Amino acid sequence: MSPTLLQRLWIPQRRGQLQPAAGLHAYDQAEEGQPATRYHLRVDPDGGGLLVVNATACAQLSASGVLIAASLLQGQSDEAVLKKLAQRFDGGAPAQQRQDVAQMRGMLHTLAHPQGRFPVFNLADPSAQPAPLMPPFEATLPLAGPDQLKPLLARLWQAGIVHVTLLTPPAPAPAALVAAVQQATAAGLICGISGRASDLAADHLLDDLIAAGLDHLTLAYASPRAELHDSLYGAGDHALAEALFARTEALALADVAQMPLIAATVDDLDATLARLLALRVLNVRFFAIAGRGQDDDGAIPAASMAQVAADVEEAAERAQVLYLWQPPALRQPDLTLAEQVRRGPRCASDVAIRVEPEGAVIPPRGPHRVAGNLLRDEWPAIWQDAAFKAYRSRIERPTRCLTCPGLAICAADCPREPAGWSQD
Ligand code: SF4
Q1: pLDDT digits (tens, 9 = 90+) for 219-263
Q2: Do residues 116 and 56 lie in contact, with contact meaning Cβ atoms separated by under 8 Å?
Q3: Structural domains in the chain?
Q4: Could you tell me if the CB of 63 is within 6 A of ligand 1?
Q5: How far is CA 403 from CA 45, 126, 400, in A?
Q6: Whose CA is nearest to atom 3 of ligand 1?
Q7: pLDDT tens digits for 62-87?
Q8: 302, 293 Cβ separation under 8 angstroms
Q9: pLDDT at 377 over 80
Q10: Phi first, then psi: what are they for 281, rounded to 5°?
């Protein structure tokens, strides 16, 4: 759905209690002879929301868009939806509302048959249209035992966070991974796993994860040069990653490559994306490790970050892959470069949060500040904590500058500015 249509669908006046209740709503719709389509509709307290379809496509909706989508997903007729719109909103022209309902029907169909296969989006540019940061859509959570995970997953659903990505530790027990995915899907969440191929290559593990309900898999992929990739992720990991990507293609599982951006990998950008395309990997997350410019130890110097970001975005557009910026990380001198690369970004994106197994919630960028505990604190209090306020104040301020090219990454924060990186 285009931003123009989103704006046009947004009619600010409210009346009555017709809007779906704030929170998460799930719908399954089956067409004859087709597998059921799974819709998650998140309704935010302001009435707007987010629609995620089959864990593979998503759209941000206005308040009237939410009302139309919820009504259509409940199977209501166009006439019934138009009646609700007339009751709920002032100022909407009937012809326009009829057109909006027809467009939403079309959008629900389009989102159920997306060209891409993963809900990838970078933040919109706030300098083009100042807007508050969307509440988080995803949680990044290290794998934990079933007793720890169960209440965390339930709290994520209550908080309206529809999507969880589990981080794979070194040499995990395959049964623990499968059980975690089962728990997440039983809780109603979209579930992904992210990690190294070496930790996910056990016999039948991928099949078992898919049977448990896995929606997508993110694998580290540094370079088409096996020796460079293996120097970061371990001997043999490159071959295992390529073999796993072949399996995800054969099994029609949504897959994502996570490419670390360090001094040694940025020269390979075009070759890396070409190799990923040959492997039929169409979704790429970029994760930069950057240094302040004194002793960068293999990281990208702050002064080079804007140029690297421009090179990345141009290469991704040339290759026509869907790309997502992950929050850059400040080089941690207490870790080797390979250790930090393997640790990965703090969060999957700027519409994600980090949740630790004991419940601590940390914003995607800035110092490692705990904003609250998901198990003890209500989500609105966590979202309004000083740690998130500081994060939002940086994200929501205009960053577009005349001296630099227009980059998607700048919508979140200036890539040259260490204060906007995650600092762990
Ligand atoms: S935020 Fe501004 S200064 Fe920083 S890279 Fe983007 S355009 Fe350039």
Answers
A1: 999 999 999 999 999 999 999 999 999 999 999 888 999 999 999
A2: yes
A3: 3-112 (no CATH), 138-423 (3.20.20.70)
A4: no
A5: 38, 18, 9
A6: 401
A7: 888 888 989 998 888 999 888 888 88
A8: yes
A9: yes
A10: -100, 115
